[in-house]
Structures are given as structure tokens and as C-alpha cells.
Write a structure and sequence with these properties.
sequence-specific DNA binding; five-stranded antiparallel β-sheet; 290 residues; Jelly Rolls; alpha+beta
Length: 290
């Protein structure tokens, strides 16, 4: 069995640019293992030619100028990808955590909540202009994602491009979903609503009880759903969002006391212990390394 690289295993998105060459595998054994064991959504744009995937043991054919969207319950078999000699494909796998790290307004999440609650896969036909615009965004995104860690402003560039890319996809998906009878997965709908609420309230409210109460379910039920669909408990997801925001504020130069205040910790000492427990180093040490 391939050994999973820790850096890859901790990633919440993977980007690929695939061209022709029918005999060459699309994913390495390590990538296949990671993609199979993570709860990931996927977006696949067929720029040229055609390709097909095994999704939940059924082969799905996708042609030129089409966009494929799959949810984590739509298990994509990475070893099953078949492509025409002239195909060109852009493919991104991402977790729901990745979307919620981006700086979107509430209306974006209200719009995409419908997509995130889907329990199967969908293929959308695009106009030539929309396909071209989208492929240009994918191309830029993948170009910068491949740059080394020493590439100045790389995280900020990727984040900005991801926001543009996902806004464009949300726009196209919302147009297509108008014509699709929508039968959401109840569990995924609860998860999407939880993330939307978390995005709005994580600075003020850190307890599972608060979010469960707002969603009209018990804390245990919420944690069972998040564990099943993401592999993490509700409290882990809440803490992950707090940690990511704390890291961002530390990089921005805010004092540790001000960060503790903004994130509604009782005091600086309690925030410091929380950060070290989750990150492994103190806020001061993190700032020095960032």
C-alpha cells in the first residue's frame, strides 16, 4: 500500500490539468488513495474531446464544454478515468472546509447551499464563451497552485483566484439548477446549514449546543452527521475554523490579546492554550515562523 505524504493528506483541495495520452494514468497510486479516503466534492470541466468516470459503479460520459459536479457521496474511481486522444480536462477536488475558508458574503453561501446539499452528480452544458472563461480561470488557478512555497503571495493569489472561480461556477450552477428537480440529502442540507451558520457566528459562539439549537437538532445528532459526512465532529469543525482565523489574524500582525478579544476567548492565556493544543506551537511561535 502506498505511504501517504503528510503534506498531501492535509490538503483540502487538489487541482489537475489532464490532456490526451490514453495510456497514461491520470492519478498516481498515492493520489488515488488520498482522493478515495477524503470527503471531497469535485468539479470537472471538459475543454476539448470527451472523458468518462466510474461514479458509484456507474460510468458517466462527459463531453466537450460540459461541467461535472460531484458530491462526496458520489465516489469517483480515480483509476477508472477514460479519455479520448484529443481531450483536455481541468479537474479540482475540494473539501467543504476549503470553500468556507474563502471570503464570501452570506448570499454566496445561500446560493451554493443547494449545490452542497446534493447527494449525487450532475453534468451541465456550457456555452462556448462560458467554457472558455472557466477554462482560463482553471488554468490560472492550477498554474499558481503548482508554484513552490517560496513563491511570494502564493496563498493570497490562490485564495483570490479560487473566490473568482467558485463565484463563476456558482453562477453557472444556479442557472442549471433552476431546471433540475431538487431533492436534497437531508443530512447534507443540515451540514450546509451548519457551515453557513458557522461562517456567520464562529467568532461569538464556540459551542456545539449553540449551532445544534439554531438548526433545531440535538448536539449529538449534529456531531453524528458531521462525523459521517466530513470525518470530523462538530466541535472539531468549529475549532478548525477558529484556528484558521487565528492564523490569519496572526499573519496580519494583530496582537495576541486583540485576537483573543476578536474571537471571544475569555482571556489571552486561554486563547494561547487553545491555539497550542490545536496547532502544536504557541501563537507567538507561529507568528515567528509565518
Amino acid at each position: 500500500m502506498p505511504i501517504i505524504d503528510q503534506h498531501l493528506d492535509n490538503k483540502d483541495f487538489f487541482a489537475f490539468h489532464i490532456k490526451g495520452n490514453r495510456s497514461k494514468p491520470v492519478f498516481s497510486p498515492q493520489q488515488q488513495l488520498i482522493l478515495a479516503n477524503k470527503n471531497l466534492y469535485s468539479l470537472c470541466l471538459i475543454k476539448k474531446g470527451e472523458t468518462s468516470f466510474m461514479i458509484n459503479d456507474e460510468r458517466v460520459q462527459v463531453g466537450q464544454h460540459h461541467l461535472l459536479l460531484t458530491s462526496p457521496s458520489s465516489k469517483v474511481n480515480g483509476a477508472s478515468v477514460s479519455k479520448s486522444w484529443d481531450c483536455e480536462v481541468y479537474l479540482i477536488f475540494f473539501s467543504i472546509d476549503f470553500i468556507f475558508k474563502l471570503d464570501f458574503r452570506k448570499d454566496f453561501f445561500e446560493l451554493t447551499k443547494k449545490s452542497l446539499a446534493l447527494d449525487n452528480s450532475h453534468v451541465f452544458a456550457l456555452s462556448m464563451q462560458d467554457a472558455t472563461n472557466l477554462s482560463n480561470l482553471f488554468k490560472q488557478f492550477i498554474h499558481y497552485e503548482k508554484q513552490g512555497h517560496d513563491y511570494i503571495f502564493k496563498p493570497k493569489i490562490i485564495k483570490s483566484l479560487a473566490e473568482v472561480l467558485f463565484c463563476e461556477i456558482a453562477r453557472l450552477a444556479s442557472q442549471n439548477f433552476k431546471n433540475i428537480p431538487f431533492v436534497p440529502s437531508r443530512k447534507r442540507e443540515i451540514l450546509a446549514n451548519f457551515y453557513l451558520l458557522l461562517k456567520q457566528s464562529f467568532r461569538q459562539d464556540h459551542t456545539v449546543q449553540f449551532y445544534a439549537s439554531e438548526l433545531g437538532i440535538t448536539p449529538k445528532h449534529l456531531s453524528v452527521i458531521t462525523k459521517e459526512l466530513t470525518g470530523k465532529s462538530a466541535i472539531e469543525l468549529i475549532q478548525n475554523v477558529l484556528v484558521e482565523e487565528a492564523k490569519y489574524l496572526l499573519r496580519q500582525g494583530l496582537s495576541i490579546g486583540e485576537i483573543a478579544k476578536q474571537l471571544h476567548f475569555s482571556d489571552q492565556s486561554f486563547f494561547g492554550k487553545f491555539f497550542k493544543r490545536n496547532v502544536g506551537i504557541s501563537p507567538k511561535e507561529f507568528r515567528q515562523k509565518a
